[in-house]
Design brief:
4 helices; Methane Monooxygenase Hydroxylase, Chain G, domain 1; mainly alpha
């Protein structure tokens, strides 16, 4: 495998990683929009949406971790690629310029950020459900005191 192919593979994995994060943000946005638009309270729906989100978040987190590990392996291959004097582009100078810009984020930091977002999303879902319950109770209390 050539140095250029390794660089291309690195950026393909970077694009895949970005796609997983984009999908994650879109799902959270859609989920919270769905939850905020609901008028009636329904704990079963909230529970099912919570469970489905947790399943999605678990698989998404796994894909992000796997892709990050693949990038790490490619970075290792780039670091150990020999400078080929027969190549059209000298690898040595390119390697010394390009490699420092290819940073691998901390895998534990990625995991912790994802988990924090997951917990906050689930907490928000249930806070919205609680708000609907409180508003429904306040509505019932207001109608009980009104004459017919």
């Amino acid at each position: 495998m050539t140095y250029a192919e390794l660089v291309q593979m690195y950026f393909e994995r970077s694009n895949a990683l970005q796609s997983y994060w984009t999908l994650y943000v879109v799902i959270i946005g859609g989920l919270l929009a769905f939850a905020s638009m609901r008028q009636r309270r329904d704990r079963l729906t909230t529970l099912l949406v919570t469970v489905l989100f947790i399943f999605f978040a678990y698989k998404n987190q796994g894909a992000i971790q796997d892709t990050s590990k693949q990038r790490l392996v490619i970075l290792y291959a780039l670091d150990t690629a020999p400078a080929d004097d027969n190549a059209l582009v000298k690898v040595g100078p390119l390697q010394s310029i390009l490699r420092p810009t290819m940073v691998q984020p901390d895998l534990a930091g990625i995991r912790n950020f994802h988990y924090t977002c997951d917990v906050l999303t689930v907490a928000t879902l249930w806070a919205m459900e609680r708000r609907r319950r409180v508003m429904a109770e306040e509505g019932k209390a207001a109608t009980v005191g009104q004459p017919r």
